[in-house]
Amino acid sequence: MTATDPMIHEDDLPGEEAKLDPQPEWTPRYPGSGRLEGKVALVTGGDSGIGRAVAALYAREGADVAILYLNEHDDAQQTAKIVTIEGRRSLLIPGDVGDKEFCDRAVAEVVETLGGLDILVNNAGEQHPDEDIVDITEAQLRRTFQTNIFGMFFLTQAARPHLKKGAAIINCTSVTMYNGAKDLLDYSSTKGAITAFTRSLSENLIGEGIRVNAVAPGPIWTPLNPFGGADPEKLKTFGEKTPMGRPGQPNEVAPAFLFLACDDSSYMSGQVLHPNGGMIVNG
């Protein structure tokens, strides 16, 4: 095993959404209005959780959707079915976003199969809780950064030649970047890097008419925590510390990704939206 191999031996990541109880809510809450009509979107981590909800909402709004995922094939097939039921084309591409060659091949396949690329959603991520910093292995540290931030660089590099004026990039950061998380030191650090990457990439691309923004979800009920090694006792009260007193659902986060992908946010770049149950952060 190399330092950047998926750490499936340490936990059950990425985890099957079908095994969660209760099931996450991904269904869009309103009819589409054509806000992404004719667009092509690439969503990483699109097999489940927030990624699935974003794929479903983008399809409802008129986009064809390429779904990148690691290895949860059943979940990915379900997401593809959701997209096609909305009358749009879907494309499944399994692989590791921490592998630059895979990212290059994936973007090329999207452009060739779906005819272009207008929206890049960098959503894929992984986390591995540890109570003490000395418990974080070198392999885990490298793996978490490889997936969570290196993958965003690799995909953006591959996508950049295909993105034209009016294109949008949306990155998934986290409330842990703002509030910290004592048992997610490496994960939170990557989310800080993602926020800095978002702001800097916005400055880099805004002159080309390409907008770059981010979404920083709070505790959302997805496979990430249950299958990422979270304490079962903590899961019983997951999200209860938010002002709303509950975890969010993926379909409560997806509209933020839609807003940042469409012309409704035409005067926004370098910004972060915070669907987090009412937690006040220094955005």
From TrEMBL:
Specify the superkingdom.
Bacteria
Family indicated by similarity = Belongs to the short-chain dehydrogenases/reductases (SDR) family.
Question: Could you tell me the keywords of this UniProt record?
Answer: Oxidoreductase
Q: Which InterPro entries match?
A: NAD(P)-bd_dom_sf, Sc_DH/Rdtase_CS, SDR_fam
This one is known as SDR family oxidoreductase
Q: Where is this region: Disordered?
A: 1-33
Gene3D superfamilies linked? NAD(P)-binding Rossmann-like Domain (3.40.50.720)
Q: What residues form the membrane-spanning segments? A: none
- Sequence ranges of Basic and acidic residues compositional bias: 7-22
Which segment of the chain is annotated as a signal peptide?
none
Gene Ontology MF terms = oxidoreductase activity, acting on CH-OH group of donors
